[in-house]
Write a structure and sequence with these properties.
By secondary structure, the chain is an alpha/beta fold. The chain has helices at residues 2-34, 37-44, 69-80, 96-101, 116-119, 148-153, 167-173, 187-196, 206-216, 250-266, 268-273, 289-293, and strands spanning 46-51, 59-60, 66-67, 85-90, 107-113, 123-124, 129-131, 133-138, 159-162, 181-184, 201-205, 221-223, 231-232, 235-236, 239-245. It contains 12 helices and 15 strands. The termini are far apart.
């Protein structure tokens, strides 16, 4: 009987100890869960960013370095926020928003255009640049394409674009038949489609088209320099690119915006984006994400 009492008392003590440990663990997890993304990344000293490997916005160099317009702007902002390391998570452009929502990364640095449709899913920081569209074709422009309207009016012209890109909406609204729009994984795949004859034309933003052509150095492909910007709902298209955050990460986005404004005011923003083919004409001015989405 004495042995039984001793064993019982030991079991009770062990049970109490285990309960206390689980309770403490639960409190620790609760504290972590209560922290915002901004608080977590400041504490850990690094942030994970989603990118789609598209020059000049965000891409990896041959030695694995993460760079690009959007990356370097974010890097400068984050450094001023006390976050000195960026870790890249490569994904297809069309998977960036779902990946952010699934918490695969903390923010999107891919030069993503601010649009009302995307703003339903993510929260955009203020724009870092403003640019128009461009197209590239086989040398000599054999189908004589100079606008999205030309693509729409041509009986067989096929256009290749990266999946999830805003150009899809522009093409559809320009009455390009859906069956003549080829969706591929990224701008490199779009160029391959043009080179192989699967597509007759590719389209993306001006810096993106120029960057892929500069990289490819293919004499059989050229940019259409007299391209006419698409007109959607009576207005010439001009896109504004920005970093994107999860909807619940307002503190992170607002802190990012404050530091981004300092870069604009000091002239540092232009110095950061110039090496990637952007000029003073591509600066966004004073327009905010809220202005664009009105």
């Amino acid at each position: 009987m004495g042995k039984f009492k001793l064993s019982y008392m030991k079991l009770m003590a062990i049970g109490t100890l285990l309960f206390s440990l689980f309770a403490l663990a639960g409190c620790g997890n609760s504290e972590t869960a209560d922290k915002s993304t901004f608080e977590k990344v400041k504490e850990q000293g690094y942030v994970t960013v989603g990118f789609a490997n598209e020059k000049p916005y965000a891409y990896q160099t041959a030695d694995g370095e993460l760079t690009g317009e959007a990356v370097e702007v974010a890097r400068a902002v984050l450094k001023n926020l006390g976050i000195h390391e960026m870790r890249g998570e490569l994904t297809e452009f069309g998977s960036l928003v779902p990946g952010l929502q699934a918490e695969r990364f903390d923010m999107i640095t891919a030069g993503m255009f601010i649009t009302p449709e995307r703003a339903k899913e993510v929260a955009f920081a203020n724009p870092e640049y403003s640019i128009g569209e461009a197209i590239a074709v086989k040398k000599g422009n054999p189908l004589d394409l100079h606008s999205y309207e030309d693509i729409a009016n041509h009986p067989v012209a096929k256009v290749a674009i990266p999946g999830g890109a805003i150009e899809y909406d522009y093409l559809i609204q320009s009455e390009v038949p859906e069956e003549r729009i080829i969706t591929v994984s990224d701008i490199t795949a779009a160029l391959a489609a043009l080179q192989s004859g699967r597509a007759d034309v590719i389209t993306a933003t001006g810096p993106s088209i120029q960057a892929i052509l500069d990289t490819a150095q293919d004499p059989n492909v050229e940019r259409v320099m007299d391209f006419k910007q698409p007109v959607i709902d009576g207005e010439s298209v001009r896109g504004y690119g920005a970093t994107a955050f999860r909807k619940e990460d307002d503190d992170f986005r607002e802190a990012f915006n404050r530091e981004l404004q300092k870069l604009k005011d000091s002239g540092e923003l232009l110095k950061i984006i110039e090496p990637f083919g952007f000029t003073e004409q591509e600066l966004p001015g004073d327009i905010t994400a809220e202005d664009i989405l009105k």
